[in-house]
Design brief:
The structure holds 2 protein chains of 2 kinds. Chain A is mostly helical. Chain A has helices spanning 20-30, 32-51, 53-63, 66-93, 105-127; strands spanning 97-98, 101-102. Chain B is α+β, with helices and mostly antiparallel strands. Chain B has a 5-stranded mixed beta sheet. In chain B, strands 6-7 form a two-stranded antiparallel sheet. In chain B, strand 3 and strand 4 form a beta hairpin.
Chain lengths: 132, 239
């Protein structure tokens, strides 16, 4: 159908380096890389837990190594950054309407951050023995 | 009155195969728009320069060009906001025909593909349509598009794959899908809910940054994804 587009040279692989807006976009998308590492760590942990006590304790030792801590710290920062960008985009994708009125974007963004804080508090409570 | 230097990417297919840069010195004051500067060049410096324009007031959408790598309307761009060196190129991601004039055929094909008009299945209806201000407010923002094509020049997904319907066409489809008078959503979904439809978008969001009418096409495309997903789910259960 697109006869007229045939004449166009394809975009170079480095297109995203041309503009800082595109660089910011690629950083947002690249936050998945440290998260992949974290996910792999979790899966390895579960397998170790199933296998033996020794495997579990060596996994714990692996997780407390400095480079692993640094990578997982990076994963935490990356996921918070991704959340920050995602929360800003959310009201544009799912504009919420209550009784015919569109909810202001700031309210939706604030609501999402409140959700993050709630989940954090829940985990702090769980890890400090609140469930016992 | 001071002067500013403008570099324009020239392309004259009957003279040379390659495009080249040409520099012009233009007089500027606080009210000089880029379109004024191009007109000055055409009228007093170099009559061979080709560019499109019509209304001079950001409503016709004809004078889109790249200004220092950003898609802009010439009439809405003021030289006072730019340093001495200004680079003007034809809109990115479109085939160049001559100087600053691009071939927008692909864009027009994509616009037509989404049936951007009211589809009323009760065709014999002769009553005037009624619409409340609340119903109007649902789509009004997306109805402000002037088809200038700046969003296509901003969209890397369209640059990588010109088969992608693109921001303006999808925003327009969404505008009609949200219209209380329209019944053509099912027909448009066939076009929107495919890889070259809404699913080619990765929400880079630059289309909405450059839109001169604040349509926010990125929002329209991604709201379209929600609608397309719903459409698929409903079709799945209906069998």
């Amino acid at each position: 159908m697109q006869k007229s587009s045939d004449a166009l040279p394809p975009l170079k692989r480095t297109w995203w380096l041309k503009h800082r807006y595109f660089v910011a976009y690629m950083v947002r998308e690249a936050t998945v890389l440290p998260l992949l590492f974290f996910a792999a760590c979790l899966i390895a942990g579960m397998i170790a837990l199933l296998r033996s006590d020794a495997a579990w304790s060596s996994w714990l030792e692996f997780m407390s190594a400095a480079p692993v801590l640094m990578l997982n710290g990076l994963a935490l920062v990356a996921s918070l950054y991704h959340a920050w960008t995602f929360f800003q985009l959310f009201p544009r994708v799912m504009p919420l309407r209550i009784a015919g009125r569109t909810l202001p974007s700031q309210a939706i963004v604030a609501g999402q951050w409140a959700g993050v804080v709630l989940v954090l508090l829940l985990f702090v409570w769980l890890f400090t023995g609140g469930a016992r | 009155m001071s002067t500013k230097s403008i570099r324009i990417k020239r392309y004259l297919p009957e003279q040379a195969d390659e495009a080249y840069w040409q520099r012009y010195e233009v007089p500027v004051d606080d009210s000089t728009s880029l379109l004024d500067a191009l007109t000055h060049i055409k009228e007093t410096l170099d009559s061979s320069l080709s560019y499109r324009w019509s209304c001079r007031m950001a409503i016709c959408g004809s004078c889109g060009v790249m200004v220092n790598g950003m898609p802009k309307l010439g009439c809405k761009t003021f030289l006072r906001n730019y340093p001495a060196d200004i680079r003007i190129e034809p809109l990115a991601h479109f085939p160049v025909r001559r100087d600053l004039m691009v071939d927008m055929e692909v864009f027009l094909e994509h616009l037509a593909a989404v049936k951007p008009y009211l589809i009323d299945t009760a065709a014999e209806n002769t009553e005037p349509y009624r619409q409340t201000p609340t119903q109007l407010a649902r789509y009004k923002q997306f109805a402000n598009c002037i088809n200038c094509g700046l969003c296509y020049s901003a969209c890397p997904q369209f640059g990588l794959n010109p088969e992608f319907l693109g921001p303006a066409a999808i925003a327009l489809a969404h505008r009609y899908n949200l219209d209380s008078r329209d019944q053509g959503k099912a027909q448009r979904m066939a076009e929107l809910n495919r890889h070259e439809g809404v699913w080619s978008c990765t929400f880079v969001g630059f289309c909405s940054e450059v839109c001169p009418k604040h349509v926010d096409p990125a929002a329209a495309v991604n709201q379209g994804k929600v609608e397309a997903a719903k459409h698929t789910l409903i079709a799945l259960f209906k069998g």
